[in-house]
Amino acid sequence: MAAAAMSTETIAAALGTRRLLHPPAFLSFRFRPTPRLPGAAVAASAPAFRRCKAAAKAHDDDQLVLDVAESTWDDLVLHCESPVLVEFWAPWCGPCRLMHPVIADVAKAYTGRLRCLKLNTDENQDVATWYGIRSIPTILIFKNGERKETVIGAVKDTTLAMTVERFL
């Protein structure tokens, strides 16, 4: 019995954990490996052509949603004849990154009827200030150079599509 206790103590010392003589039921100091996410193993073992295809799709989505800056704001947004959807975002914003594929899907669905743009608020703070953007992601919809609708936060694609439909 002492040999078994000794090996448990040796393992605990090697793992850098402490064993209590009488641990409470809700505490456990045993080593538990972090479970692997099922998608992580699949993504790592995916063939190269699948990874390239996914990268190409992401690149195509980037072509549908163009970047806008303060210098191009008037031409791309205010003087556009079709309705314009502008996402105010920042690279460090997690919900903003969640919205990129949603906006790309909306841009794909309304190609030719709606212009979709994104504005980095870190690089273009003046435009964000002009429109009173206080949280990101914020989506503004313009029609005939006039601000028509504001959507704040991450929303589902159906919600965004219903909002866009009102201005087409």
Automatic annotation (TrEMBL):
**Which GO CC terms are listed, alphabetically?**
cytoplasm
User: Carries keyword Nuclease?
Assistant: no
* GO molecular function per UniProt: protein-disulfide reductase activity
Q: Which InterPro entries does the entry mention? A: Thioredoxin, Thioredoxin-like_sf, Thioredoxin_CS, Thioredoxin_domain
> Which Pfam families does the protein's record reference?
Thioredoxin
Q: Which residues form the Thioredoxin domain?
A: 40-168
Q: Which UniProt keywords apply?
A: Disulfide bond, Electron transport, Redox-active center, Transit peptide, Transport
Q: Does the keyword Cell cycle apply?
A: no
| Alphabetical list of PANTHER family matching this protein | GEO12009P1, THIOREDOXIN DOMAIN-CONTAINING PROTEIN
* Name listed for the protein in its UniProt record: Thioredoxin domain-containing protein
Query: What species was this sequence derived from?
Result: Setaria viridis
Record lineage: Eukaryota, Viridiplantae, Streptophyta, Embryophyta, Tracheophyta
